[in-house]
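To the team - zinc ion complex, inputs and output below.
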Amino acid sequence: MNDTAADYSWPTCMACGHELWVSEAGRQACRPCEDKTVKRLAELPSLFRQLNTTASLMRGARKVGAATSGSRVPPIPPRLEVLSLVAAGGVATRLRDIEDSWRAALGWTVAPWRGSPAEAVPEHTRFLINNLPWAADAYDSIDQDIDDIRRLHVECDAALTGERRPGRVNVGLCPVADESGKACGNQLTASAGSPRIQCGTCGTEWSDMAAWRDLRRAQEAANETGAAA
Ligand SMILES: [Zn+2]
Ligand SMILES: [Zn+2]
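Output:
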């Protein structure tokens, strides 16, 4: 009987659970996990650039002139999963949170200014790739970060697959209310080539993707009011 040998468990990778090689002893994550994470990080800026376009917001949207189904107001195409990835709180924020936790563990200044999400994503990924060798070796929460990077990559990839550029599409009814509180109700359209939506009836304009989100919220609010009336 050798109790010592029975109790001893060989060190494993925190991220995938595989036993570490002798040459990996003392590491938090194995080299294959590190290599996969570098590859995912390197692909994220390009995935983000493709997602951060009007066309990807409108993929799968109903084309102008297509018959609408029974519902009074057609679904509004701006895809929330795409918006939630490209806007603040999305890819850039999730990468920043990882960068900040590594910086804190290293005793470095946290939250350096990285600009807009489009500017920040390549900066964050560069930082994370440069410092991944340290994190895989010594950072004890690396398993969570490897998993979050993997999920981010899957979400971006999934949001990019689907129909290609639909041309001009219906984007719901104009929710802008007049003095009496009645919604304009004109059919709004948008084209894949431009983020600008303008109502042909009341002239209201939504000029960028942040405005699209406001538009969608206003349409939902108008819808609820309409349904209750
Ligand atoms: Zn591993
Ligand atoms: Zn209008």
